[in-house]
Amino acid sequence: MKRIPVVIAGCGGVGRQLLEHIVNCRALHSKQGLVLRVVGVCDSQSMLVANDIFTEELNDDVLARICLEKSRGTSLSELNDIGDCQVFDYKEATMQVIDIAGLLGRSTGLAVVDCTASSETLEVLKQVIDSGCCVVLANKKPLTSSMEDYQKLTSHIRRIRYESTVGAGLPIIASVTRVVASGDSVFRIVGSLSGTLGYVMSEVETGKPFSEVVQAAKRLGYTEPDPRDDLSGMDVARKALILARLIGWQINLDDITVESLYPEEMGPNSMSTEDFLGGGLSLVDKDIAERVRVASLKGNVLRYVCLIEDSRVQVGSQEISKASSIGRLRGSDNVVEIYSRCYKEYPLVIQGAGAGNDTTAAGVLADLIDLQDLFK
Amino acid sequence: MKRIPVVIAGCGGVGRQLLEHIVNCRALHSKQGLVLRVVGVCDSQSMLVANDIFTEELNDDVLARICLEKSRGTSLSELNDIGDCQVFDYKEATMQVIDIAGLLGRSTGLAVVDCTASSETLEVLKQVIDSGCCVVLANKKPLTSSMEDYQKLTSHIRRIRYESTVGAGLPIIASVTRVVASGDSVFRIVGSLSGTLGYVMSEVETGKPFSEVVQAAKRLGYTEPDPRDDLSGMDVARKALILARLIGWQINLDDITVESLYPEEMGPNSMSTEDFLGGGLSLVDKDIAERVRVASLKGNVLRYVCLIEDSRVQVGSQEISKASSIGRLRGSDNVVEIYSRCYKEYPLVIQGAGAGNDTTAAGVLADLIDLQDLFK
After folding, report:
1. What are B11-52's pLDDT values in tens digits?
2. Same domain flag for A32 and A79
3. Same domain, B254 and B241
4. Residues of A with catalytic annotation?
5. CA–CA separation, B133 and B100 (whole Å)
6. In a domain? residue A123
7. A327 and A190 in one domain?
8. Which residue is closest to B328 within chain A, CA to CA?
9. Touching B: A residues 305-364, CB under 8 Å
10. pLDDT higher than threshold 80 for residue B138
């Protein structure tokens, strides 16, 4: 039986779901001769660590308790009674992860999973890679920092996986990695990589005002608490950057042209979320409706896409043929079209649910399992 | 630099293209610290082996010469002047592969690539796996033999890859493997997995007689020399069996319901290819045209698909909604829809070129590269 030690940072939606998946897959993984040993779990305030990381782990009762408490909004720091593990505060947690990586990197190996949305994990992750350990990311921030940081993180390309940073669990990163590894050069990627914006753009097409659609999306839980985090396009830009770097481009977030779906003067610094949704947003309705109408006259639809081509990455609303995969997209599905030597005239298309904790955590788990050959 | 020894069986279209890809990717792979060392190449009559498999390989000049000669239809057995390698005849070749696997399995590891279309490689491949070596398949036959053979071949699941057996280089096997590994149970797969039949079915939809379309497909090089090899559905049945076994079903080729697109009395035992194409086939035109018409009245199209669901695998022509991924398919693209817990209402869809030596060989090469962590 191969025992893979894992540390999980972040136990909000995705991290908690990952813990549940790990417990639920015990029998399946055991059949393949694998055990995922969770030796540490962090949230934003503290960290639980097994008493002896070489021989012990947080057992399934402890993991179930963590899931339950986190679903109630409890902080890990309050779980002093949980037994068989140590609790560290935020400042100590960073050193703990580095120490565990140092110790296990020399013996069995370790996988550190970043399910946070923080830009502060980067430094720790670089040290984890330096220690000879593995990193799995659902967090886009570490990969979308400077090119220098990116190169450091990916310096041992087999030891880092990040499927769930783009299109949740959809096998986009794995597929592009395969295409690139076979020497099939990718010259164009077009994608609709935001479930939220996919939903919004396909709804406005039916004649509904943009502001109403955004409000409905917020009610349905499709948007961030402040929908401007989606409408700014920055989340899509990060995904596009990850894809562009994956196909070998040396570019930065600053190099990407990003169209925001609201004017700058309605930004978070000038207006509350309530004012934005209650009044500001409706000022954009007319413009969007007009663009939808113009597109429709040409047999096109308006979609919020990323376009990676000719050394440029663009993120914004574009007129797309109704007949294309992206034009036909409905609901909150994601789709990506990859054009390469082998997929020149007709692209390689990958489509499916691109959001949700279940599928995002499933992507992280598949990454973890795929790292198994690197463990002793 | 990690040096991965490779033996390639079959140097017709796919095998030859693989050799070219390997040579063309030298710089790319070297950047990742990898060298693919081709220590042996077989065709149906003989085998070339490097003089010392531990330290030498067939160099790029030799590989280029092999590609050139095979493209001219020359047998490897005629390449006695090629230098720096030994030539073995067919009977010796089998023992050679087993010997090489035995020797390298204990040291660096070895990957044996099966690019043949033969059912005779199975026994050797089982011994290769037994020796602790890896197997990469473009050949469907070894995986579609008895369940016992399948279990033997996949007994060390990380050491066998077979992306190019289904949908050429399309990342279908890799994607389903990821879904399964994350505990996301697949309950339904629908696919259009024959470029030839995809082309035929979408052409008859435009009103052309079935027999004319098949003849055109043959002229375009889309079919096997005897188009009945495609029209029988057995090739699709093998692909469906590989997918069904991948999601954990213990079934055999016999268990699959396969609809042939020509009546049994027009089979290869009763009729020559010429008689079949020249006369027999047109007797089917009316029936197919009628089925296309009936489907169309309901807003459907007729497609030749595989359906894996409810413990049954069916392969044949079915009415499919025009609006679905499969219904919209044009040309010789393949598409597969995967339904699982995470992709329940809307499936995970993978679409693209599902035939061609370039993409098939690219899939094999991506498999080889993905095995790298198993090599010392």
Report:
1. 988 999 999 999 999 999 999 999 999 999 999 999 999 999
2. yes
3. yes
4. 239
5. 10
6. yes
7. yes
8. A323
9. 325, 328, 331, 333, 341-343, 346-353, 356, 358-359, 361-363
10. yes
pLDDT digit string, tens, across residues B141-199: 999 999 999 999 999 999 999 999 999 999 999 999 999 999 999 999 999 999 999 99
Quick check: is B178 in a domain?
Answer: no
Mean pLDDT (chain B) is: 94
d(CA A75, CA A12): 10
Bin A175: left if φ > 0, else alpha if -120 < ψ < 50, else beta: alpha
Between chains, do A342 and B349 touch, taking CB under 8 Å as contact?
no
Q: Please, what is the end-to-end C-alpha distance for chain B in angstroms?
A: 10
The answer to whether the Cβ–Cβ distance between A366 and B182 falls below 8 Å is yes
The torsion defined by the Cα of A172, A173, A175 and A177, in degrees rounded to 10, comes to 160
B163 and B191 belong to one structural domain: no
CA distance A248 to B276: 51
pLDDT of residue A158: 96
A115 touches chain B (CB under 8 A): no
To the nearest whole Å, the CA of A323 is away from the closest chain B CA by 9
Residue B332 lies in a domain: yes
DSSP tag of A299? T
Ranges of chain A whose pLDDT falls below 50: none
| pTM metric for this prediction | 0.95
**A31-76 per-position pLDDT tens digit:** 999 999 999 999 999 999 999 999 999 999 999 999 999 999 999 9
Length of chain B: 376
pLDDT for residue B146: 98
pLDDT score, position B324: 85
pLDDT number for residue A143: 98
Answer whether A171 sits within 8 Å of B169, measured CB to CB. Answer: no
Full residue range of the structural domain in which residue A298 is found: 186-352
Catalytic residue, candidates B91, B218, B239, B322:
B239
CB A168 within 8 A of CB A353: yes
Q: Do B328 and A328 touch (CB under 8 A)?
A: yes
Give dist(CA A313, CA B136) in Å, integer.
Answer: 36
Window 31-70 of A, Cβ < 8 Å to B: 32
Distance, CA of B230 to CA of B237 (rounded, Å): 11
Which pLDDT value is given to residue B247? 97
Contacts of B169 in chain A (CB under 8 A): 178, 182, 184, 342
**Residue B60, pLDDT above cutoff 80:** yes
pLDDT recorded at residue A207:
92
Let me know whether A204 and A263 are in one domain.
Answer: yes
Q: How many domains does chain A have?
A: 2
Predicted ipTM > 0.85? yes
Confirm whether B41 is domain-assigned.
yes
pLDDT of residue A278: 87
Long-range contacts for A102-108 (Cβ within 8 Å, ≥24 apart)? Answer: A102/A131, A103/A53, A103/A54, A104/A5, A104/A39, A104/A53, A104/A54, A104/A133, A105/A131, A105/A132, A105/A133, A106/A131, A106/A132, A107/A54, A107/A376, A108/A3, A108/A4, A108/A5, A108/A375, A108/A376
Long-range CB pairs of A260-263 (<8 Å, 24+ gap) are A260/A231, A260/A232, A260/A233, A261/A197, A261/A210, A261/A231, A261/A232, A261/A233, A261/A288, A261/A304, A261/A317, A262/A228, A262/A231, A262/A232
Band of pLDDT at residue B89, cut at 50, 70 and 90: very high
